[in-house]
Specification:
Blueprint (H helix, E strand, L loop, with lengths): L3 H6 L1 H11 L4 H36 L2 H37 L18 E6 L12 H7 L3 E2 H8 L5 E2 L2 H19 L3 E3 L4 E2 L1 H6 L11 E3 L4 E3 L4 H7 L3 E3 L6 E10 L18 E11 L4 H19 L3 E5 L11 E9 L4 E10 L3 H6 L1 E4 L5 E3 L1 E9 L2 H8 L7 E2 L13 E2 L2
Parallel strand pairs: 4-9, 8-14
Antiparallel strand pairs: 1-11, 2-3, 5-7, 6-7, 9-10, 10-16, 11-12, 12-13, 13-16, 14-15, 17-18
Helix pairs in contact: 3-4, 5-12
The structure holds one RNA strand of 91 nucleotides.
RNA sequence: GGAGGAUUCGCCUAGUGGCCUAGGGCGCACGAUUGGAAAUCGUGUUGGGGUUGAUAGCCCCUCGCGGGUUCGAAUCCCGCAUCCUCCGCCA
């Protein structure tokens, strides 16, 4: 939810953000009106309640003669209060609905437009110019005995897979490298629950436009998380944090579950787009004033991981229309996929400013001692999809795969994976 | 799955329809006292919302959450959540 004070003071900022996202501007004025209505309703109910309160006290002290008259007035007032409170409840509900309809206000500098309108910040590394036709990760991985998608489909359906033998070891190694790096950087490692309550899923903003992406357990009223961002954001919900020592950083290790509804036919080969994968995710709580710097740091840690697996990539500043509800800015690192001759997302770091924290009621105590809404950010350190980039970029002409140095300890010291 | 108990201002606790504008203790903060400290004394100490130029003042809400009864609810009634104990079931 956006800050209503910002909205009241400069509605034009919010309208400009909506324009850049290519979204409806009407919702901004609807929100302004709903805010106005709610405040009027609250003021009315408050003053009636105040009257009722003082009258109620007089009834208690009244002598018999006055009592009946006072009681009659109090009864009328009680009815008035009830009506005013009803109106207040209606106005509040309408405000929440209007509030939810407005996505986060983008940060200055975010490129306007849709998926294609990203700005490239930098390129790192060179796509290899080998003289053989690159195999794709499925062919490589299957031949090397690292993964098995056929049996994944037999057991669980399409977009499921087994990581087998050294493939499983390679993933564990990758995630372990990410964990080690995060812990060295001061993150607290967390293994979170992957089933969460509706209000937590709602609070992180995933039940809006992404609702069809989320697995839901109807019998238990729980949701399977698509990323550990969800439980990590919920971790401090309804709390007032001490952020005086700087940002609080958590690294979440979890399996992630996504329905991938509406992506039929996209990335159906291999393990690029799957229903279940593993991930190490960074999550930061900080003061809003620190959020932009923290965003750069998260990007830096992602790039450090990408350097460790030695794949070429580019960094993009994602366009406003492709940001999602909660993010005010998002940087993606896209690795080169030789089989596709294209850059594909490996990491994504979002600055959600106070948007997510406002919904989840996550605050911190400011220098003046008053509670303020915190900022939240998240970013990817490693996922199953990274195996795709590793296999494809490090493949040799004979179908073997060179193991990046950082991962060798996790595959028995092997420099090369061979059939 | 069944039975019982609990949930009050950071912590402990008092409170069975109007005197609760929620009392006391601990902790914490500030001040007094002191050469400095301990002890002691004093003051303050949940959070949200509205009004406002204001982090002043005033007003409303907040006793786990949501309803209800009543002129009036921490207190009575109903539902829910969480925690604890015991029984059963599963491992």
């Amino acid at each position: 939810m956006i800050d209503l004070k910002v909205l009241r003071e400069s509605p034009e900022t919010v309208r400009a953000s909506q324009r850049a996202r290519g979204e409806d501007i009407e919702v901004v004025d609807a929100l302004l009106a709903a805010d106005e209505r709610r405040r009027a309703a609250v003021a009315r109910a408050d003053s009636l309640r105040g009257e009722q309160k003082s009258l109620g006290k007089q009834v208690g002290k009244a002598r018999d003669g006055e009592r009946d008259e006072l009681l009659a007035r109090a009864k009328q007032l009680a009815a008035d209060v009830k009506a005013a409170e009803g109106e207040q409840a209606v106005a509040e509900e309408a405000l929440v609905a209007a509030h939810r309809a407005v996505p986060n206000v983008i940060i200055d500098g975010v490129p306007a437009g849709g998926e294609q309108d990203f700005a490239v910040r930098e390129h790192v590394g060179q796509p290899s110019t080998s003289d053989f036709a690159p195999r794709d990760h499925l062919e490589l991985g299957t031949a090397l005995g690292l993964l098995d998608t056929e049996r994944g489909a037999k057991v669980s359906g399409s977009r499921f897979y087994f990581l087998t033998g050294l493939g499983a070891q390679l993933q564990l190694g990758l995630l372990q490298v990410a964990v080690n790096q995060a812990v060295a950087a001061g993150f607290t490692l967390m293994i979170p629950p992957v089933l969460v309550r509706p209000e937590i899923m709602e609070g992180t903003g995933f039940l809006g436009e992404h609702a069809t992406e989320v697995y839901r357990l109807r019998d238990d009223d729980l949701y399977l998380v698509g990323t550990s961002e969800v439980p990590l954001a919920g971790y401090h919900s309804d709390e007032i944090l001490d952020l005086s020592a700087g940002p609080r950083r958590y690294a979440g290790w979890s399996s992630c579950f996504r329905r991938e509804a509406g992506s039929h036919g996209k990335d159906v080969r291999g393990i690029i787009r799957v229903h279940q994968f593993d991930k190490v995710e960074m999550f930061t709580y900080c003061r809003p004033s620190e959020a932009a710097d923290e965003h750069d740091r998260l990007l830096g840690w992602e790039e450090q991981m990408l350097a460790a697996v030695e794949v070429p990539y580019r960094v993009i500043d994602v366009a406003a229309g492709d940001l999602g509800t909660s993010a005010a800015r998002k940087f993606d690192c896209e690795a080169w996929f030789p089989s596709q001759q294209a850059y594909r997302e490996l990491t994504s770091t979002s600055n959600c400013t106070t948007f997510q924290a406002r919904r989840l009621n996550i605050r911190y105590r400011d220098d003046d001692g008053r509670p303020r809404i915190a900022a939240t950010l998240n970013g990817t350190l490693a996922t199953t999809r990274w195996l795709v980039a590793i296999l494809e970029n490090h493949q040799q002409a004979d179908g073997s795969v060179r193991v990046p140095e950082a991962l060798r300890p996790y595959v028995g010291g092997r420099e090369l994976l061979t059939p």
